[in-house]
Amino acid sequence: MKAAVCEAFGKPLVIKDVPEPSVGPDDVLIRMKGCGVCHSDLHLVDGDWADWGTPLPIIPGHEVTGVVEKAGDQVTGLKPGDPVGVPWMQYACGQCPACRAGAEMLCPAQKSTGVTVHGGYAERVKAPAAFTHRIPEGLDLVTAAPLLCAGITVYSPLRRAGNLAGKTVAVAGIGGLGHLGVRIAAAMGAHVVAIIRGEEKDALARELGAHEVIDSRKEKAGKQLARKGGADLILLTGISAKLFEECIPGLGPNGTLVVLAAIAEPAKVIPAALLTGQKRIAGSLIGTRDDMDAMLRFAADHGIAPIVERHPLGTVNDVLERMRQGKIRLRAVLTP
Ligand SMILES: [Zn+2]
Ligand SMILES: [Zn+2]
């Protein structure tokens, strides 16, 4: 089968023929239909995460959708022909404190698709049935691919926040994550404020369901947000320490800022600014398998499909380069 293989960090992926994965009794073999290209993939292939212990060579890609081609003897819930998705989390131990507390995405023994085990930049991918998700009817397999990472990342903190009807949710950054954050928060009934940088994404944000739009180029986003009464929840999806700092004053009483972007530079927080108003800063990492199934059903029921560019698998190096240059508009999906 054809695959795009990372043989050395910092080098282009090698498009080559590799043996098809062999399927164990608890696994399914999936014919790939779509694989989203996530910012994390760029970190991986560029070697930013080299000390995570990624075994080389590795096939990247953790936003995989496809159709089951083969199911192992012990697989009960899935059969050939079923539409499925494979996300980042491909194994959690079930025994550690995080797993026992229902936070399996924090399991230290976790196996990660396309990071520690082969992922979806390939015509076929193998995954344990227990960590493979059925894609509900009504979702297109190519456009649905980014739901498996970008979708779950924004959905989990919204779900955790409880009933958001009439509450103010600000989404800072309208890219691969943020555009889904706006759609999902709006579908949950929240009053959605999109925080953009420059006017280009104003119309898009409103089309996605934002009720108000703030342009952080005009004035600091948090100040504008505070004038509107402050947000109950801010989803920070833009990779910018400056945006993080700017958003904090935009939190309303008891408001929470959730960091969803891997911002690796230091940022300034004045602790007293959290004390008054009981504001919180939190992180959120993907979600549980239950979050994933709920998100997929929610997306199907509400007609929420990521906006994607489609590119053939063989052009993946160009896609990664365009991502490095910030030229992917929202999300790119590789097709076989
Ligand atoms: Zn991702
Ligand atoms: Zn565990």
Please identify which CATH superfamily of the largest domain we are dealing with. Medium-chain alcohol dehydrogenases, catalytic domain
Judging from the principal axes of the Cα atoms, what is the shape? globular
Query: Could you say how many structural domains there are in total?
Result: 2
Bound ligand species:
zinc ion
What do we call the CATH topology of the largest domain? Quinone Oxidoreductase, Chain A, domain 1
Quick synopsis:
This protein is α/β, with parallel strands linked by helices. The protein contains eleven helices and 17 strands. It folds into two domains: 2-149 and 287-335, Quinone Oxidoreductase, Chain A, domain 1 (Alpha-Beta Complex); 151-283, NAD(P)-binding Rossmann-like Domain (Rossmann fold).
List the helices and strands and how they pair.
Elements: E1 2-5, E2 14-17, E3 27-37, H1 39-46, E4 64-71, E5 83-86, E6 89-91, H2 97-100, E7 111-112, E8 124-128, E9 133-134, H3 141-144, H4 150-160, E10 168-172, H5 178-187, E11 191-196, H6 202-208, E12 212-215, H7 221-227, E13 231-236, H8 241-247, E14 251-259, H9 271-275, E15 280-283, H10 289-301, E16 308-312, H11 316-324, E17 331-335
Parallel strand pairs: 10-11, 10-13, 11-12, 13-14, 14-15, 16-17
Antiparallel strand pairs: 1-2, 3-4, 3-8, 3-17, 4-5, 5-9, 6-7
Helix pairs in contact: 4-5, 4-10
